[in-house]
Amino acid sequence: MSDDVWILGIHMTRFGKHPDADLIDLASEAALGALADGGVTMADVGVLAAGNLMQASSGVGQQLQKQIGQTGIPVYNVANACATGATALRTAIMAVRAGECDVGMAVGVEKLSGAGLLAGGSRRPDSATWEPHGRYGAVAAIDGRIGTEIMPGVFAQVGMEYGHRHGGTSFELFARISEKNHAHSTLNPLASYQKRFTLEEIMGDIMIAYPNTRPMCSANCDGAAAAVVISDAALKRLSGEQQRRAVKISASVLTSDPWTEGCQVLPDVNTLTRNAAATAYEQAGVGPDDLDLVELHDCFATAELVHYDNLMLCEEGGAVDLFESGATWRDGRMPVNVSGGLQSKGHPIAATGVANVWEVATHLRGEAGDRQIEGARVGLAHVIGLGSACGVHILEKAAA
Amino acid sequence: MTAAPTRVPLVDYLVLGDEPHLVAHECTACGARFFDRRNACASCSGTEFTTVPLATDGAVRAFTIVSFAAPGVPVPYVAALVDCGGTSVRANLVDVEPDADHVALGMPVRLTTFPIGTDEAGTEAVGFGFAPA
Does residue A218 have a cis peptide bond before it, meaning omega lies within 30 degrees of 0? Predict the structure, then answer.
């Protein structure tokens, strides 16, 4: 393992509807913002990792280069479900850590506003005759006939399974997790929604997949985020101000699902997250109690609960008690999703992984404005993508 | 000339007949079970499988009530994960009111089959779900 890798510059666009900006406009805004934030230009960047899911075959990285600088460097177009942004970041980190270059950039971008239910939302029509099809020899579409493939339904079951195993969950408990994140987002000017919902409004809203009502589901929106990473040696050649604002990447981990019983019929989002967290804490040499804030993948309110446990923010089985204690509110012992989370800040898929890192880094720099977690020195960013991939990054404030 | 079959299962791991049941491909090396056609075992990479019948009764390990779905999917419906003697099965719950007062975690359920439609050739497809036991 070589020396530390640092975040030199990082930027995110406002999340929300951007009808007048295309995918490359958003990616450019994030990338140019991150370069300016770090005080460098495309000429300094030795590798580009571009994350995008919905237009993954269109060479987003090269399109971005055409708009902001065709410098001939290697480009990796990355797609890894909802962990795409974290994967792009990790790709840039790996290149720097391997010594291939001193400076790398990762961009995550997605245009998603107006998209409906993402998976299972395009069920094929039944054919005129019952012909076996695919790996299950199905004679007709399965989604809706043999369980559900829609994400709100999958993650609803993930939360319900946790409740079955450990007890203490209810529709209201999950709704209160959403209440917290929407309340947090009122302090975030870059969030898609900055509306504080009452518990009654959340529980009384349109039911998508019990117990997830509409405000308990991640918000489809447009957005981009980008990070410039730099080797320890190269950072030391830069100005004192650049060194002071640099954020140390103490851990960068990517995992996939190991086989567990039942993972083929309901994705196991737990084991790969626990594995990623354990590896990240070991890499960083910090423990959950050292964290000042956590941005985790609350794609649905039901998901946030299980990740309290998976990220070891509580003892195993203790997620309900952790939430009930108030610890995960922004004034609590373990603030989680002070950005508003995916439910309120929004979830432009490939941007999310970098945006979660941006949120943590911004607090560590003391630049988070009204929502600043005072004195934050260590933070964790987590994303998960079904398929499955999990990214965990632990960041630390510069020693200076 | 043989007559065309008049009934087909929705998926090939549903076995019809007098006592309809589900079957799984079980890895002979490690015992991991799968419903789909396998290239190798996801658990141990073994390539030998046997076909085993699953228990037709089980317990609900997780559920959701889907109210928004793709066009053509009748809603609301109850989707669930059912533990059938240690093997997890994905299925809809049927013959139950689709609301949280009538579905419960841990609820005992039993496999049931039902017709899902007849195609242009007159063949009936048969689906499965789990009903309260």
Answer: no
Domain segments of chain B: what residues?
7-132
Cross-chain CB nearest to A259 (options B43, B125, B128) = B43
- Read off the pLDDT of residues A143-199 as tens digits, 9 standing for 90 and up: 999 999 999 999 999 999 999 999 999 999 999 999 999 999 999 999 999 999 999
Give the model confidence (pLDDT) of A324-345 as tens digits: 999 999 999 999 999 999 999 9
Q: Structural domains in chain A?
A: 5-114+219-397 (3.40.47.10)
How do B21-27 and A47-51 pair as beta strands? unpaired
Annotation says A101 is catalytic? no
Which residues on chain B are in Cβ contact (under 8 Å) with A161?
A: 61-62, 81
ipTM of this complex prediction, to 2 decimal places: 0.95
Quote the tokens at residue A284: 């960083």
Contacts of B25 in chain A (CB under 8 A): none
Provide the 3-class DSSP secondary structure of residue A298: coil
Residues A156, A158, A159, CA angle at the centre, nearest 5°? 70
Calculate mean pLDDT across residues A104-113: 96
State whether residue B29 sits within 8 Å of chain A by CB: no
